[in-house]
């Protein structure tokens, strides 16, 4: 399983005008090819009257699904440049559609490549990027006499505190990066003198803004 990857925050839309042609960009996350195709089809349905609805997507842990569609533009001038932008930005699980309303001025091959690349970049900027980091949600079970010390230590640490549950024992739920699990276990064992029971609850991706 991948530990870290970048993608967009979520759905976004942007628009640019180049030589009187409108380029409207729609971008969304997609974790499967079906999700990507559904998104593309929804935009095509929305803009039936457009000259072109070009698209690209990249999906999978190893980017094993990559597709580009020029939708009537000269071969290689729309979908492929859009896909290249996604790849250069190292974005995963992302689908983008650029709708073009022709303004009467031909852009030529180079002009189209630049236009669709710019439109895709603008869409990414509108959406924003996040880094998804694999974390383990850990449950620390301790006697109530340890609560004050352990809670204070955690709140002053790099480990995000999710929740505290009060039962026969206190259960403290904390996130740690997957690669830091051993260091976390040693740290908790040290601050509790080995009196804590520590379990992995689940593996989850936490999202952090890419500045």
Task: Summarize it.
The protein is of the alpha+beta class and 211 residues long. Helices cover 30% and strands 39% of the residues.
Explain what the structure shows.
The protein has helices spanning 33-46, 79-88, 108-127, 147-155, 181-191, and strands at 4-8, 12-18, 21-29, 52-59, 65-69, 94-101, 129-142, 161-166, 170-177, 197-209. The radius of gyration is 24 Å and the shape is rod-shaped. Helices cover 30% and strands 39% of the residues. The strands form two sheets. Strands 1, 7, 8, 9 and 10 form a five-stranded antiparallel sheet that branches. A five-stranded antiparallel sheet has the order 2-3-6-4-5, sandwiched between helices. With 211 residues, the chain is of the alpha+beta class. It has five helices and ten strands.
Blueprint of the fold:
Blueprint: E1 4-8, E2 12-18, E3 21-29, H1 33-46, E4 52-59, E5 65-69, H2 79-88, E6 94-101, H3 108-127, E7 129-142, H4 147-155, E8 161-166, E9 170-177, H5 181-191, E10 197-209
Helix pairs in contact: 2-3
């Amino acid at each position: 399983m991948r530990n870290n990857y970048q993608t967009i925050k979520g759905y976004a839309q942007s628009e640019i005008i180049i030589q009187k042609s409108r380029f409207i960009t729609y971008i969304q996350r997609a974790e499967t090819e079906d999700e990507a195709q559904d998104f593309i089809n929804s935009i095509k349905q929305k803009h039936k009257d457009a000259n072109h609805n070009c698209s690209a997507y990249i999906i999978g842990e190893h980017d094993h699904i990559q597709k580009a569609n020029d939708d009537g533009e000269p071969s290689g001038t729309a979908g492929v440049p859009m896909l290249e932008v996604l790849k250069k930005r190292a974005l995963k699980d992302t689908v983008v559609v650029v709708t073009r309303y022709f303004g009467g001025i031909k852009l030529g091959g180079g002009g189209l490549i630049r236009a669709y690349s710019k439109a895709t970049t603008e869409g990414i900027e509108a959406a924003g990027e996040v880094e998804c980091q694999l974390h383990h949600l850990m449950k620390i079970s301790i006697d109530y006499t340890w609560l004050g010390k352990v809670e204070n230590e955690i709140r002053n640490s790099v480990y995000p505190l999710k929740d505290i549950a009060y039962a026969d024992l206190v259960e403290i739920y904390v996130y740690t990066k997957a690669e830091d699990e051993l260091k976390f276990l040693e740290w908790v064992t040290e601050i509790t003198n080995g009196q804590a029971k520590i379990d992995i609850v689940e593996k989850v991706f936490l999202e952090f803004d890419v500045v």
